[in-house]
Design goal:
Pathway: Lipid metabolism; prostaglandin biosynthesis. It is a single-pass membrane protein. 48% of the residues lie in helices and 11% in strands. The N terminus is likely disordered. The chain contains 13 helices and nine strands. The chain has a domain of 100 residues. It has a five-stranded mixed sheet. A two-stranded antiparallel sheet has the order 1-2. A two-stranded antiparallel ribbon has the order 3-4. The structure holds glutathione.
């Protein structure tokens, strides 16, 4: 059956991939029809705009295996230290669910956090790509956001909560999820890092188009939705990102992204991972939200102009190939 693309549908797309988690912003740019941004609610000027994000996208966009990374002074090859560090990822022995299904938007950062966790712990999962307009794939649930994870029929929601619950099952003998340091940096990802990403990926019209090309190519859109979403969404999010910038007191979005990357490298204090020789939940969270942008212009710039590249490459290696199954469930 053909889906009709409506103005409210486009708003839903913007909400689905827009910025800032649960933050609400008022969209008042005179040239932008507010309905085009605000989805289901025609009467409100408040849009719940989450930023664009995606973890599973990594499967499609992030080249796997050690590769060339860009350094500050130009292109350089991955350092020997970086290639040698990644250890075999742990395989959960006492936790081996038979049927794990992730309901997601491919470019959603929160979904990508969950995917990074599942990939690292080698818990195979199926993907159901949710249409951000109709959301018909999650009609069965009371929870109206993604990610939703179904583990042998049990529903889990909210990325951090999902990860905590899975972690506790994997480490049943020692189910302490976070120490202070891990808690602090996981909070930093949700409360700071994700807010910096949106203004960056929609910074210029060409970057907004690049981002929407990625989103609409990898998301669950009909042909017509894809074309309309790409151009309308890019235009909308270009303006919205300026609002997000203001809301989060960002004056220079690239500087803020570089600063976040450097802050993270400083937090490592010379360790390969925040977790030491192996990634911990904070490493996985940072990696998860950065993975969808890594090969967009903002991500390329970030790796070129900061010291984050070596850690990122180690993470790629540690997380390994995606363990999502090929077939998409419907
Ligand atoms: N705190 C939640 C936030 C989840 C969230 O905001 N997801 C967005 C997509 S990135 C969403 O589903 N928004 C509702 C919508 O698309 O209508 C989490 O960590 O999972």
């Amino acid at each position: 059956m053909r889906r009709r693309v409506t103005v409210s549908g486009l708003a839903a797309i913007s909400r689905a991939i827009g910025g800032g988690g649960t933050s609400a912003i008022s969209v008042t740019h005179p040239r932008l029809p507010q309905r085009a941004l605000c989805g289901a609610s025609y009467s409100t000027t408040n849009c719940n705009l989450q930023w664009l994000s995606s973890p599973g996208l990594a499967d499609c966009l992030v080249p796997s295996g050690p590769s060339v990374v860009n350094g500050v002074a130009g292109t350089r090859f991955l350092s020997a230290a970086a290639t040698s560090a990644a250890k075999e990822a742990p395989r959960p022995e006492k936790f081996s669910p038979k049927d794990v299904v992730l309901y997601q938007y491919e470019a959603c950062p929160f979904c990508n956090k969950v995917k990074a966790f599942l990939d690292y712990y080698k818990i195979p999962y199926d993907i159901v790509e949710v249409n951000p307009i109709s959301k018909k794939e999650i009609k069965w649930s009371d929870y109206k956001k993604v990610p939703i994870l179904k583990v042998d029929g049990e529903q889990m929601v909210d990325s951090s909560d999902i990860i905590d619950r899975l972690f506790q099952r994997i480490h049943a003998d020692n189910p302490v999820v976070d120490g202070d340091e891990v808690r602090k940096w996981r909070g930093w990802v949700d409360n700071h890092l994700v807010h910096v990403l949106s203004p960056n990926i929609y910074r210029t019209t060409s970057e907004a188009l690049e981002s929407f090309d990625y989103i609409t190519t990898h998301g669950n859109f009909s042909f017509t939705e894809r074309i309309i979403a790409k151009y309308t969404g890019a235009a909308a999010m270009y303006f919205v990102s300026k609002k997000l910038k203001k809301k989060h007191n960002i004056t220079n979005e690239r500087a803020a992204l570089y600063e976040a990357a450097e802050t993270w490298v400083d937090a490592l204090k010379g360790r390969q991972f925040l977790g030491g020789l192996n990634p911990n939940l904070a490493d996985l969270a940072v990696f998860g939200v950065l993975r969808p942008i890594r090969h967009l212009k903002s991500g390329r710039d970030m790796v070129e102009h900061t010291r984050i590249g070596d850690w990122y490459t180690l993470m790629e290696s540690a997380v390994g190939k995606s363990v999502r199954t090929k077939a998409e469930k419907s």
